[in-house]
Amino acid sequence: MTAADMTAADPHGENSHRAIVAAWRIEQPRLITSLARMLRDAPLAEDLTQEALLAALESWPSAGIPERPGAWLMATARNRALDHLRHARMRTRKHDAIAADMVREEQAVPDFDTALDDDIGDEMLRLIFTACHPLLSREARAALALRMICGLTTEEIARAFLQPAATIGQRIVRAKRTLSESGLVYETPRGEELSQRLASVFEVIYLIFNEGYTAARGEDWLRPQLCNEALRLGRVLTAIAPHEPEAFGLLALMELNASRTAARTDAEGEPVLLLEQNRALWDQVQIRRGLVALARAQELGGGRGNYALQAAIIACHARAATADETDWSHIAALYRELAAVAPSPIVELNRAVAVGMAEGPPAALAIVDRLTDESLLKAYHLLPGVRGDLLHKLGRFDEARTAFEAAAALASNARERELMRRRAAEAAARSC
Amino acid sequence: MRFMFIVKSAHSGPPTPELLEAMGKLADREIKAGRMIDSGGLMPLATGAQVRLTDGKLSVIDGPFVEAKEVIGGYAIFELPGKDEALASVKEFMQLHKDLMPGWEGTCEIRAFAPPTH
To answer: Contact at 8 Å (CB) between A159 and A220?
Structure first.
């Protein structure tokens, strides 16, 4: 069939590649969870959803998208699954045993034709834990999660992470093989293991979010779209694990950060600092969702979790109608709590900034000066940058200039360097 | 992308029990798949009211509204990759109506949310 034939037969593009992938994508959660439940094998279930997509791409352009795409895809995947089961048995069992097994399997196969029967929640949970297994590298976990839970194609994941499609394809194949060969039981973790495994899931989701968040405007639209996929993963998690406070904390943190997307860059595509952003462009619906999620985390007793505290800090900014109305004492107090839960020199530096705004520069400078020997901050331009800002406010312009020059030297990109140089020049002008 | 789905129909009756159950399962699935953000069925037109601005004057009219042909029955808000997925999702939803409430006719409209403006 030529492109012209397809257009003539399909003037509204209803059977187009995009429409077919979209129809598959809508069915993908039910497909993969049903197959995973049937086969108790996440990698295989994922393979079969992909095979179903390929089958659809082959047959639907000419036959048209069926009225019930879900049933068609499920029937296709189920047949492939049975083939696989028969094949596996053929290779390892004796002849008489094969027949018995096949009969038992046919009887065990649930009736896929019933639409919408089973709750996908339990299976989604198992799938997320599998995709985010600590056995896999962080990149592999991210790719697998985007594939299995979000239904992204290899091509889409590759573009989002600025990698060649072949690399991502390989990464996913290897990850599935690792999981298959590991002898892992396909089960939801419990007890002590559950907390650790959850931490791994949160880490992956946040990694995906940050990859999208730091993407510059004008880059491939699929990159910032990663924020939406991460948000989706966050929503899935809160829906299927509704008693986990940090799941709500993470979702809150992502919603609140994402709410500033429209304000984060100016007309020229240059980044705008939070305190200088046009707050009319902050997405109030997302802020509301973030605050609701944060409240839920706190209700569940998780107000002191790492993600919940970070979300609470961002919430302080989100609640302020103008930069001047920011509740800096509250932010400073939250950073103190965060320092107790997840201590780091960066947290301490951020606390210093908040203390400076709430109590004045001297108290902040005392904190910053204690950080000068921190090896983790040796190459971090914001340490001398913050110091310079505090010194400038205290009228110690000569010292401020020196600090800003040090910051400019450490800056990791031209824009940061330019900003620090400008502040050094301002300080120099004042110190005459 | 955020979409609103708006269901409208000239049929004023409630959904059949089968359709209600199926829509409930679909909603549950879409929440757990992280795609549906919000949804709601609306009370009958007779219980509603309208405030109209015509000819420079405001007036309040209680339901039912005589000239209403199609009535909004409910809405849902979804977060989806794009319009193609929104169409596929709504087609599935409407297919449920076709299967489980024979004779029902209506429209489900898809509208993307407008981005924040400068």
So the answer is: yes
- What is d(CA A209, CA A258) in angstroms, rounded to the nearest whole number? 9
Kindly give, in sequence order, each residue whose CB lies less than 8 Å from that of residue B30, ignoring residues fewer than 6 positions away: B36, B78, B89
Give the residue carrying structure tokens 């709590």: A337
Inter-chain residue contact B33 with A120, CB threshold 8 Å: yes
CA distance A38 to B98: 29
- Please spell the DSSP secondary structure of A203-245, one letter per residue: HHHHHHHHHHHTPPTTS-THHHHHHHHHHHHHHHHHHHSTT-H
- How many residues can be counted in chain B? 118
| Residue-by-residue pLDDT tens, chain B, 118 positions | 999 999 999 887 788 999 999 999 999 999 999 999 999 989 888 899 999 999 999 999 998 887 778 889 999 999 999 999 999 999 999 999 999 999 999 999 999 998 766 5
Residue B118 lies in a domain: no
Of B31, B34, B88, the CB nearest to A22: B88
- Chain B CB contacts of A116 under 8 Å are 22, 25-26, 29
Task: Provide the number of structural domains found in chain B.
Answer: 1
CATH number, domain of B51, equals 3.30.70.1060
Look up tokens 């979000």; give the residue. Answer: A150
Quick check: A131 and A148 in contact, CB under 8 A? yes
Query: Mutating which of B92, B94, B110, B117 best tests the A interface, going by the most A Cβ atoms within 10 A?
Result: B92
Three-state DSSP at A265 gives strand
Cβ of A225 within 8 Å of Cβ of B116? The answer is no
Amino acid at A376: L
The residue with tokens 């201590």 is A343
Nearest to A48 by CA among A80, A16, A71: A80
3-state secondary structure chain B: CEEEEEEEECCCCCCCHHHHHHHHHHHHHHHHCCCEEEEEECCCHHHCEEEEEECCEEEEEECCCCCCCCEEEEEEEEECCCHHHHHHHHHHHHHHHHHHCCCCCCEEEEEECCCCCC
- For residue A280, give the DSSP letter: G
Hey, are the CB atoms on B29 and A116 less than 8 Å from each other?
A: yes
Q: For chain A, give every domain's residue range.
A: 3-110, 121-183+192-241, 243-263+279-307, 327-378, 379-432
Cα B90 from Cα B30, distance rounded (Å): 12
Which residue(s) pair with B5 in the sheet? B76, B110
The class level of CATH for A121-183+192-241 reads mainly alpha
Interface confidence (ipTM) of the complex: 0.92
Q: Read out DSSP for A142-170?
A: HHHHHHHTT---HHHHHHHTT--HHHHHH
Give the integer Cα–Cα distance in Å for A299 and A296: 5
Distances from the Cα of A237 to the Cαs of A121, A152, A358, A416, in angstroms? 9, 18, 36, 37
Please tell me the pTM assigned to this model: 0.88
* Domain interval for residue B12: 2-112
Quick one: angle between helices A414-430 and A382-393, nearest 10? 20
Inter-chain residue contact A116 with B88, CB threshold 8 Å: no
